[in-house]
Amino acid sequence: MMADENKTENAEAQTEEKVATAETEHAVTKEEPAIADTPSEAAANQDPAQGAEGQPRERGGRGGRGGNRDGGGRGRGGRDNRRNNRREEEDDGIIEKLVHINRVSKTVKGGKRFGFAALVVVGDGSGRVGFGKGKAREVPEAIQKASAAARKKMIRVPLKEGRTLHHDGNGRFGAGKVTVRTAPPGTGIIAGGPMRAVFESLGVADVVTKSVGTSNPYNMIRATFDALTDQTSPKSVAQRRGKKVADLLGRGGASEAEAEADAAAVVE
Prior knowledge:
With 268 residues, this protein is α+β, with helices and mostly antiparallel strands. The radius of gyration is 45 Å and the shape is elongated. The longest helix has 30 residues, at 2-31. It has helices spanning 2-31, 39-45, 48-54, 76-91, 139-152, 194-202, 217-229, 234-241, 245-249, 256-265; strands at residues 95-108, 111-123, 128-136, 155-156, 169-173, 176-182, 189-190, 207-212. A four-stranded antiparallel sheet has the order 1-2-3-4. Strands 5-6-8-7 form a four-stranded mixed sheet. It is 44% helix and 22% strand. Among the domains are: 93-156, Double Stranded RNA Binding Domain (2-Layer Sandwich), CATH 3.30.160; 169-265, Ribosomal Protein S5, domain 2 (2-Layer Sandwich).
């Protein structure tokens, strides 16, 4: 009887050990991560630290070859910076003044097409001046065209002592008439509107002007240039007539010494 009871107790102990082992294996199996069926589930189940290490490095933006716009790089930014620097170098020593800008329209089949017309005066401030006009769909492009046209048609005007004109003159274009007169030091530029821009670009410091007949800036500037092209210097007249500058300056009643001094002061 005692042997049968011991066998029964051993069998019950072995059964309890088997049940505990099965429960432990089942618990370990539950701790294993489930296999994801979709990419969204895989992303949700992925560990944040592991995802940061596993993801590939992100590429730069849409700049591509351009690189950083501020840095220049190999893209268009570098070329634009070089063009701007080249433009600044070309503009050194040249005075540009925007005289007038007008919006124009052209009627086409689909409606009206708008554009801009610009009038620009350029000069070096030392006796050279020119004007030009340009048309474009945008204002900056119109000004650029007008400036390029003005640079191609610059004229040289002789200046007395580098500050005023040698003699009075008249100019006319269309209905516009202008009068320009030489002035003593300290007078300043007595001119209005487009004429002032011409004399400031030319480098004139003292002049008196009058314009009548029109207020059209194009006609006023053309009349002003007509008067400036008639300007001559004593030096050029003396060379043309085969005489000395002192002979020409001494015919107005001035003494020979004064004529010689004035002739020496004439630069052009």
